Amino acid sequence: MAYTVGQVAKLAGVTIRTLHHYDEIGLLSPSGRTSAGYRRYDDADLQRLQLVLYYRELGFPLEEITAIIDDPAADPAAHLRRQHELLTVRMKRLQEMVTAIEFAMEASKLNIQLTPQERFEVFGDVDPEEHQAEAEQRWGDTDAYRESNRRVARYTKDDWLRHRAENEDWGRRIVALMASGAPADSPEAMDLAEEHRQIISRWFYECSYEGHTGLADMYLADERFTAYYENIAPGLAAYLNEAIHANAISRA
Amino acid sequence: MAYTVGQVAKLAGVTIRTLHHYDEIGLLSPSGRTSAGYRRYDDADLQRLQLVLYYRELGFPLEEITAIIDDPAADPAAHLRRQHELLTVRMKRLQEMVTAIEFAMEASKLNIQLTPQERFEVFGDVDPEEHQAEAEQRWGDTDAYRESNRRVARYTKDDWLRHRAENEDWGRRIVALMASGAPADSPEAMDLAEEHRQIISRWFYECSYEGHTGLADMYLADERFTAYYENIAPGLAAYLNEAIHANAISRA
DNA sequence: GCTTGACCCTCACGTAGCGGCAGGCGGGAG
DNA sequence: CTCCCGCCTGCCGCTACGTGAGGGTCAAGC
Question: Are B226 and B219 in contact (CB under 8 A)?
């Protein structure tokens, strides 16, 4: 079977210009031409094109692809292994970036302003292993995440204002309670912890008691979130953490 | 504090040329110049640079970064969501390619020749959901995979020849047994299934009984592997599948 | 046989995000 | 005063094509 450029382009999902380019640089020259100078591609050309596109998708520069394909002594298994490694590295990098973005999104819900430094830390010397563990511990429940993002995407400015008002009201009440000297495991504190859980459930994602305690622990473990609550009132981060745990235990 | 281009370049880990370029396109112009025309960057410039690099790392084109940073009304959350989606898509794509490569690696162990079509299928209209489920069912045990790859990477040509000889010997014996009319759940068939499991364990990765039955099912479910065994002897794929299951049950 | 429209050809310049030079000035140390 | 390092402004080069311009070709319909 013989194909014209246009046919090949459609088959392979590339533009004609791309095929011209590959011909120009000698990466993929059609096996023949018609008398009028039209390019004619045969099945072998198609196979080669598929290989080319495969390597291209893996991020190889075209020149290198030429070398790989044209080298008859090349070990295909070695290429596969190499590709696999490359992909793994890229996946890891992407995963880190996704984590960074999710962190930024979560932080923005609490109106925490990330400093450029913080935004930037994903590029720093952060140990990927540690980062991974941290991420899993923090946003392990990806379903909740997606759910949250779905909801948030539909919020209007008004919704945000109402959420903020609600949040601030809750904040004033828990600060007052803490100031009154009521212990963190008092019924009143637990009620406010429960309210906190329901605010999250209503606005972001279905928050279980277990997930709630995980969140509470993060408020203490991560200084950014600690700072957020400590900024409202000193001692609030620990107070809230304890109240959430007490609430989770008593309702379980 | 004021910094020269060179200092900023070292601090931020970019080249001087990059800073010149950002100045040229108006993405990041230093807040001042010395009388001699030297660029002078201050702390605010550094902050802006970090933001720029952050968005750049996330894959935004420079022009868009300019718009994002310079537009005070822009919704950063919307950008984050968008970028999160983009990254997710890219991750999915990479994951599919990893799966395809792992498939190719597994196939090459059995000396199955993949056609370019098959190599190419990752670009096709394969339903990602289905693909994902298939991949999980197939190579769920990633540890086994890594282990296998580690070992295989050290094999010499001699190792491969010995493995092949061993494999072919086993093949001849199971074909003979099947031809003799012995049922697939006979002790002899189960012994050969067990031997099959041990060959895998010895050469590739620690193969549990459970993993072995999973593999056996794949031999029937995936036509490429089915074809491999059917090519040795008609009916062998089903016969081996049954023998492996019988063996797993009896040894459990 | 002729037109029409879809297809093909070859230049050839434009794009992003810089890399890397040339040719020339500035600035602090010895 | 010299030396060398750092800075400056062009400006051309690179990859992997996109996007025309200007013109030939092919199959179908009239």
Answer: yes
